[in-house]
Amino acid sequence: MSSSTSTPDEAAFLEWFTSQGGSVHPAVGFKQWEGQGRGCVALQDIEPDTVLFSIPRSILLTTSTSALPSLLPAEEWAELGGWTPLILSMMYEYLRTSTWKPYFSLLPTQFDSLMFWSDEELAELEGSTVLGKIGRDEADEIFAETVKPLVEKHAAIFGDAKDYSAELFHRMGSLVLSRSFHVDSKPESQDDEDEDSDEEEEEEREDVADVAMVPFADILNAKSGADNARLFYEPTTLNMMSTSHIPAGAQIYNTYADPPNSDLLRRYGHVDEVNNADLVEIGLETVVDLVGEVVGMNEEEREARAEWLLEMGIDDTFSIETDLKLPDELVSAIRAFLLTPEEYAKAQKKESPPKPKLDAVSAKWARKALEHRLGEYKTSIADDEALLQDSTLPLRRRMAIIVRLGEKRILQGAKAKLDTDFPEGQAEAPAKDKKRAREGKAGKEEGRKKKSKQ
Questions:
Q1: pLDDT class for 39, splitting at 50, 70, 90?
Q2: How far apart are CA 79 and CA 150, in angstroms?
Q3: Beta carbons within 10 angstroms of residue 260's beta carbon
Q4: Which residues lie in Basic and acidic residues bias regions (predicted)?
Q5: Residues 419/367, Cβ–Cβ less than 8 Å
Q6: 168 φ, ψ to 5°?
Q7: Beta-carbon neighbour count of residue 295 at 10 Å?
Q8: What is the CA radius of gyration of the chain?
């Protein structure tokens, strides 16, 4: 790597990286990218299947490579849950050792991810379900009730407890959220399904020992639809390889499984102006409240039917993507709340929710659900589009507007599609026709019975 592209911190990191057995292709350099921070650049044309850099597994920062677990009583370490063992290990290594000092020097200390937004800034996201996924209160509770007492109890190991602040805990947790990789002991000879695990799935994995901070790999930025590199797992190394031609001067992008803007903002602190992976969520509770209450169910009946749907495998959240298709599970849930008590009893016996067949009646309720979700935002699409014309908007407010505007466009688009497929005035016609058909059939049956008696 050309030394002219490196700051002193970058030069120190490269010296440490190569001294630990890492290797870097001469065509890979560091660069500060506007709006994205530090990333990597192609210093010359790079062809597909080129090893950009190779990372020894020995320098991954994990609960297995950190010294901390071996210093604490095993029973106390085992009581730590979630990501807390890795976050605490990172705090210890950052404050008490020099093992990963050159690596920590390149990591950001300030973030635009939602964990660090003020209440006023978060209010700009009103209506988006991402507000329920931030987890700040839960993190504060873990720090106060678990981390702080443990550090104070073992001062001989941790040093000054004041250094282990809530701010540092959130900072290290945000690094794990935004930059960690799932790295298990298997070499990457598996199918694509095993090679490319979903980000949401990675976050929820129970085995924190498989979550790793990966020096160099986490420097690469990501952008929807722009990835040109990918990390491959070998028995002793992790190799970042180009997946397409990268022209000189272009940024080298890793793939982050193309999350929607709400997740990009929550995890990484940025959004994509155009994101084909965007989506909006509708909760099962919207169906419960809108349909269940109107059709005359009391609260206990609504809760029982919702619980049955969950037991039958229906999720509690439905995602509508940019193709504007209503999720099958949403349609099934709506139809389940439209079942008569007799029909519901039969469905329970069969252990089968209604098929996700959209008809005029269920379309009417789907439209109401979309309208309800649109009503949860405090601004209109036109309002947001006008706001984005202001070039002086603060970055966080602009990103919030982009998130909520993308969600509202999907909701409005899905509603427009419903309006075309099932015009609102015709919503009740099929139900009436069905009733007439049943009455007509009953009349014919009665006629046949009378005739047979004669």
A1: very high
A2: 11
A3: 26
A4: 439-448
A5: yes
A6: -70, -35
A7: 14
A8: 27
